[in-house]
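Put briefly, the fold is written as integer tokens. The lines below illustrate.
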Amino acid sequence: MSTDPQLSAAVDTARAAADGAADAGAVGDHLRVVEDDERLVSHHFACLVPGYVGWYWSVSVSRAPDSDVVTINDVVLLPGDDAIIAPPWTPYRERIRPGDLSPGDVLPPDEDDVRLVPAWSAGDGEEQTPDRFFAREVGLGREWVLSLEGREMAADRWQEGDQGPDAPIAQQAAGVCHSCGFMVSLAGPLSKRFGVCANGMANDDGRVVSFDHGCGAHSGARLSRSASAQKLPLPVFDTLTLDEVDGL
């Protein structure tokens, strides 16, 4: 499809339309002509607006068959290949991170959240009884509990996080949390891998820790002391002994 010569030559008409739609001095040099369809082209002009480097003005023009009248369709400001544009929109739920919630904020779970199942279908350890469905009907106990997927997701998150075995503080710890007297046991399936730290002087006080996590505040930690007096190196500048002077 060949470019319509009359529309391609309508640079001044397109520029006048761009100048009328933009602020004074915002339209720069003519960049190109783009054939959009039969008797429909777009004239592109450089954008001189500060902060819009790489953007361009696009003026769409057309004409009717057997007509010499050039019609302006629209004038838009578009980003080019090198333009700085905003990142793709991310829903608020995907942007939230632990610690973002403030007092009064509400973050309900999704209706199809795989982490939760009705309490009557999967109990928490010893909570699984034949009366779970009846308990839900009369309003006893929790309506929802963690699903198997929810438990595994929590376990993986805790194991790989700062309270897991790969944390720098755990790598240099003399003992692990499983043997620490300050560890409080959990109940349910997760109790086989995790506990809660109850040492008020530890970094993880009140947090869930994996059994193979550890820190220097372990209940069995002891300070090591040398049995003999430490021999100090010779001073670089001796200010304690008297200087010996020949003849005195």
User: Anything to note?
Assistant: The radius of gyration is 37 Å. The mean pLDDT is 86. The CA atoms of residues 135 and 162 lie 38 Å apart.
